[in-house]
UniProtKB/TrEMBL annotation:
<feature type="signal peptide">
    <location>
        <begin position="1"/>
        <end position="30"/>
    </location>
</feature>
<comment type="similarity">
    <text>Belongs to the glycosyl hydrolase 27 family.</text>
</comment>
<keyword id="KW-0732">Signal</keyword>
<dbReference type="Pfam" id="PF16499">
    <property type="entry name" value="Melibiase_2"/>
</dbReference>
<dbReference type="Pfam" id="PF03422">
    <property type="entry name" value="CBM_6"/>
</dbReference>
<dbReference type="InterPro" id="IPR006584">
    <property type="entry name" value="Cellulose-bd_IV"/>
</dbReference>
<keyword id="KW-0326">Glycosidase</keyword>
<keyword id="KW-1015">Disulfide bond</keyword>
<keyword id="KW-0378">Hydrolase</keyword>
<dbReference type="InterPro" id="IPR041233">
    <property type="entry name" value="Melibiase_C"/>
</dbReference>
<dbReference type="InterPro" id="IPR017853">
    <property type="entry name" value="GH"/>
</dbReference>
<dbReference type="InterPro" id="IPR008979">
    <property type="entry name" value="Galactose-bd-like_sf"/>
</dbReference>
<dbReference type="InterPro" id="IPR013780">
    <property type="entry name" value="Glyco_hydro_b"/>
</dbReference>
<dbReference type="InterPro" id="IPR000111">
    <property type="entry name" value="Glyco_hydro_27/36_CS"/>
</dbReference>
<dbReference type="InterPro" id="IPR013785">
    <property type="entry name" value="Aldolase_TIM"/>
</dbReference>
<feature type="domain" description="CBM6">
    <location>
        <begin position="399"/>
        <end position="521"/>
    </location>
</feature>
<protein>
    <recommendedName>
        <fullName>Alpha-galactosidase</fullName>
        <ecNumber>3.2.1.22</ecNumber>
    </recommendedName>
</protein>
Length: 527
């Protein structure tokens, strides 16, 4: 924090995203429908069937059965979604959409009931236009938003994919907000997927509108398409978070157009990017090897991590890419991804991920399941089009939670303009009483240690609270002499096992000191 704030130069959000830089986005209210606090996991038929004859009620029931019998439900897959071509080409006399009786003789409500009986959720598709995307011309929802939302709710729909075809040139935000409002009035909680293909940079405006938004055009089952979607999506990490996700399109794993290594890369990168994991293959035909990819619970855990951070790119040199993802328990996930045609060694360090210093680190390979230790180097020989995926943990000592993984109250920012900090930045709280920085942490621990800098002459006191209860009041964070001089403040606390919220709240108009990290330690360290 400085004694004043400089007005930032306006920069195109698209240019920032394309650069891959990590910046703090403007404060934006997310869609508060309480849904998709982690990215959605499930199935959509489009990639495997499109509108061919095999897309039927029987197929979709079979997918729901396989979710249960093959352990996908237990692995976290929840949504069984249908795509375009489920309806007749014309509405009925009441103006309602009508399920195609040849494909869905029992109707959509009966199908949703079947899916629900399996302990799963059901999703449907339409377009924010006069027609859907298929050339047969099925009716879209433009100017029918409330009627269609009410119909979907009456059928028990839990998820809506809302496409972008035949939109008549109507402003995208207008069209997608209209359906958001209609869903909110439908009386049913329905997750809302904006399939706008990234045409109007939805990452800059869609967080208060939908639970997820497409950042790309349609994926296809080949390496060039898949890796292109990853490249387009990976610079948008600042826009993703619980309840609002970047969507580089559905999974192709199991459709047969890529190698096993390429499918593992596909699944790894989608998990690192906190992307939706919507299976796009006909699970009745998928091999055991591809089921093993889809059911890798260690990789799924990265995607479903409750902190909800999308990975950032630590380096991309000639197609050798290093991704790092901050996890809720203080660990890091690191992906070493080889986009080139030849085997190459890809390397980074634990310190580059911001995990904090330790005498050694544990690396768990999430595909081979091998575990090893390192003093800091993270490196592997990676075959062409493959990805080595590690979960990195500090071996002994405190668990570090960087400030860039924290929540900062309104007016605060994550900055990197004062050297010497750990990780990729520090929290610069607003100059105000009540300004706060808040971490989600995992116990047990008996001490909290805060890394900070205070370049003013006076101490900056804060209240430290755990799960909403103040455990240390008006704790001073003394002057350190400069904003580039970092020190620590530690306090004992009885933090039991489990998840907790730790917040520091400024008690004076100066706000808090610049906060670099929070360490959870079994012993108090001198401040």
């Amino acid at each position: 924090m400085s004694s004043f704030r400089r007005v930032a130069t306006a920069v195109s959000a698209f240019a920032i995203a394309a650069s891959g830089l990590v910046v703090s986005p403007p404060e934006a209210l997310a869609l508060e429908n309480g849904l998709l606090r982690t990215p959605p996991m499930g199935f959509n038929n489009w990639n495997s069937t499109q509108c061919r004859a095999e897309f039927t009620e029987t197929m979709i029931k079979g997918i729901a059965d396989i979710f249960v019998s093959k352990g996908l439900k237990d692995a976290g897959y929840t949504y069984v979604n249908i795509d375009d071509c489920w309806a007749l080409p014309s509405r009925n006399s009441a103006g309602d959409l009508v399920p195609d009786p040849a494909r869905f003789p029992g109707g959509i409500k009966a199908l949703a009931d079947y899916v629900h009986a399996k302990g799963l959720k059901f999703g449907i598709y339409t377009s924010a236009g006069t027609k859907t995307c298929n050339k047969a011309g099925f009716p879209g929802a433009l100017n029918h938003e409330q009627q269609d939302a009410n119909l979907f709710a009456s059928w028990g729909v839990d998820y809506l994919k809302y496409d972008n075809c035949n939109n008549q040139g109507v402003d995208a935000q207008q069209r997608y907000k209209a359906m958001r409002d209609a869903l909110a009035k439908s009386g049913r909680a329905i997750a809302y997927s904006i399939c706008e293909w990234g045409q109007n940079q939805p990452w800059t405006w869609a967080a208060p509108v939908g639970n997820l938004w497409r950042t790309t055009g349609d994926i296809s089952d080949k390496w060039s398409s898949m890796i292109g979607k990853a490249q387009a999506n990976r610079g948008l990490a600042q826009y993703a978070g619980p309840g609002h996700w970047n969507d580089p399109d559905m999974l192709e794993v199991g459709n047969g157009g890529m190698t096993a290594a390429e499918y593992r890369t596909h699944f790894s990168l989608w998990a690192m990017m906190a992307a939706p994991l919507l299976i796009g293959s006909d699970l009745r035909k998928v091999s055991d090897d591809n089921f093993a990819i889809l059911k890798n619970t260690d990789v799924i855990a990265l995607d479903q991590d409750p902190l909800g951070k999308q990975a950032t790119v630590l380096g991309a040199d000639g197609g050798l890419v290093v991704y790092s993802k901050v996890l809720a328990n203080g660990d890091r996930a690191v992906a070493l991804s080889n986009e080139t045609a030849a085997t190459a060694t890809i390397s980074t360090t634990a310190s580059a991920t911001g995990i904090g210093s330790a005498s050694s680190y544990t690396l768990k390979d999430l595909w081979s399941k091998a575990t090893r230790t390192t003093t800091g180097t993270i490196s592997a020989s990676v075959p062409s089009h493959a990805t080595v995926l590690y979960r990195v943990s500090r071996a002994g000592g405190p668990t570090r939670y960087e400030a860039e993984s924290a929540v900062v109250s309104e007016g605060g920012t994550i900055d990197a303009n004062h050297a010497g900090f750990s990780g990729t930045g520090f929290a610069n709280g607003a100059n105000a009483v009540g300004s706060y920085v808040e971490w989600q942490v995992t116990g047990p621990a008996s001490a909290l240690t805060f890394g900070y800098a205070n370049g003013t002459a006076a101490a900056r006191p804060v209240d430290i609270s755990v799960d909403g209860t103040v455990v240390a009041a008006a704790v001073p964070f003394p002057a350190t002499g400069a904003w580039t001089t970092w020190s620590t403040v530690a306090r004992s606390v009885a933090l039991p096992s489990g998840s907790h919220t730790v917040r520091v709240t400024a008690t004076t108009a100066d706000g808090p000191a610049n906060l670099d990290y929070l360490d959870l330690s079994p012993e108090v360290r001198a401040s």
